[in-house]
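Fold these two proteins, one after the other.
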Amino acid sequence: MWKTKKRGARRWAAACLAGLAAWSLTACGAEGNPPMNLLPQEKEEQQVVNLFSPMEKTDPGVENVARTASDLTVMMAEEQLGVTMVYRTYTAEDYQDKTYDEVILERARNNMDDLYLLNPDVILALGAEGKLMDLSGLDSAKNLRDIIRVANTVDGKLVAIPQEVVAYGLFVNKDMFEQYRLELPDTPEEFLECCRVFKENGIETPVGANRWWLETFVFAQAYADLYNGGNTEAEIAALNSGETRYSDYMRPGFEFLQELIDLGYIDAEKALVSEVIEAEGPDFLAQKTPIVMAYWGAANTETAYGKTDFEMQVIGFPSSRGQMPVMPMTGFGIGADAENRENAVKVLDIMTSDAALQVYSETNRVISPSKNVKVDCVPALRPLNERIEEGIYVLGSNAGMSVEQWGNTCLIVRDLLGGASVDECMAAFDQLQDAALANS
């Protein structure tokens, strides 16, 4: 999710170097004379925790709800512990061609910060390298939903804890569906029929897409049975051992995307070069495109789809088991060798406590990772939320799988958009699996 951010408001934390002035004056003393201590020493050294994260605000002057929600929990930790959180932030302008993930891998491997907000692919990579602390001993970890533990456990260690459960769904213009007497689709076949009707009625591109999120369609079809068929652990074990192939799971989703492209329901060339929401958002809001895909929070903010001139609903992606939410996991991790890791642990324990998560979830109106925290969602999100509360979803990332899912699938979907065949895409998954087996 975070690698898509191309703009950001900067928040700089000023570092106060206590004693610098005293050192300068002392250095100027006459040779042979004892230096005079002109400034009193602080009684206690300031306690800091360095946080590296992206910035949420994408448009100047617009209230940033997600940033505010996180800041409120940071303030709780600062007040209770007497520490200062120092923000170190990513912007594309600072790092040019490097993505957020690439930057954070470099920083974490070199112990440049204490606390990190991590994407799922980075959680798996750093967890496997032993660069992240085991957080299972935190008090807040006892309250986590099972899905969080599954997705963020690497080699038996819980290496990341989020402040929200990120859920992706289809954002649909319900008015347009009703105009053409269409039911909201449950299965891939029903989805294709809806697109056909829209296309025949002059809607040039029924599905607005970008270069990041089309993998959600793939995950919904690939893992609907794996996560909802009652045999999850055994199926994942078979994948990790090489007994079954990731490509066999992925093929139906890629064939479905190829059909959407071939029929003109998705503009592959445009999607390949489009950033999220910036490209497909205007047509969706203008009611030229009836279907887009986005994450839960996009329904809560006016900078995305939180204010429409039509009735919007957010539903799951089409699958053999009906509308299917797709849930990748971001999370906060602490460097195993971080300079201030002891304070970072205390800070994170407060930031992810039930009290803090209640504040965060109510402010940001999101799904909480704690099984004890419930928050009402906006009406548009209720169809998606109902499925999640029923325990019906697939994970877009799972640190227990030998092949990283979210990032790799995104890149291979881009190959498809660029003209690669489905067979070539499946060969790419086989190569990833073979490499993982060779390293196991």
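Now the second one:
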Amino acid sequence: MATKQEQELDEQTPYTDLVEHTPKINQQLARYGVKFGIYKDGTFNERLFPFDAIPRVIEASTWKSLEAGLIQRVRALNLYLADVYGDRQIIADGVVPEDFAFASSGYLPQCEGITPPGGIYSHISGIDLVEGQDGTWYVLEDNLRIPSGASYPLIARGLCRRCDAGTFRTTPIVDNRDYGTRLKAVMDSVNTGGANVILTPGRYNAAYFEHAYLSEKADAILAEPKELFVENETLFYRDAGRNLRVGALYRRLSDEYLDPLCFCADSLIGVPNLMSAYRAGNVAIINAPGNGAADDKGIYYFVPKMVKYYLGEEPILKNAPTYLPFYPDDMAYVQEHADTLVIKDVAEAGGYGVVFGSELEPEKLNDLKTLIRREPRRFIAQEVIDFKRLPTYIGGKLVPRKADLRAFVLSGAETTVWPSGLTRYSRVEGSAVVNSSQGGGFKDTWVLSR
């Protein structure tokens, strides 16, 4: 006799043919090298990024609202970046405190006064959302530096279509195969004259598969730093027998490693004088250096205020209820309710630095509260959102697992949302940590056309 939970899962899972093909699809993903590399204890480990063929399905009306909210949010974030590296009017008007904005580890003084080609800072934004049990969607994070993940649902959708073409003929799913075309359009829109290049640190980067895959889909050159050089404030790619000018550089390495003459002097994977070419307006860097000033977890608190300030609109998407220990009232609340909150270190990413107060022993919880009092700018605290669990096949069984959604917003001549996304799920029962770097798996995201 099936349990109530099993019956509910079965009702949510009509894609039985896809489920049957899951092992075959994962074999194909492994063959294509769809892996995710993880550095742990000084060692690089590479593993298959586990795929579950049961998709997340989003109704057309829901997607329309999400799309509007995502575009609104990214527009405001781009305006904030232009402002904070320019006139700083939002700070002068007291919307974002000065000592809070410039205390962000992602704020780079080297980027002050630089206006990127097209005035766009975040060309590819990865916005992480969860759906609450009541159907309300909440933004958990804004990723504006080098968000990864678009390649995984892109290739998985293609493999699923091959295995079960019938499902895709009879289900009104919006096609997601145009991501490469969208990415190329963004690069073309800000290109200063020359080739489009995707800069990868190399084979041992965690997302190397994605770098190579997207370079093919976007018809861009895949280059390592040693293949690039700057001359007369112009970036070039060392092609066979000639030097090719680069007009748009989609970089897939962190700010601090981009240019050893500007940032980290001992970086071996940077391009010397890249920032001089960028400052001169001779190359577009995608995403712009310094974007960490806007996707700092502490700055996240102010994004709804940015929407109102820059756009004069009410935010369509909600933040998770968030507290800044930076403010005395919020500090008092966090100290009193730490055992019910999730505490996040604003400088961490990939699921690291996230602590659930309810999981700590009293002594550890007190130590954390002391650390928050000592370093209030370092942390934010959020109410724990009971977000939806999705039916997932693990170990041959249908089980519920918590899942988030990374939506991809592309900003070029216009701002659009790719009608797909990376749904990440936890492989551990009861866990709310879904990050791939923490052992999570992924699903495709189907947006229905009607």
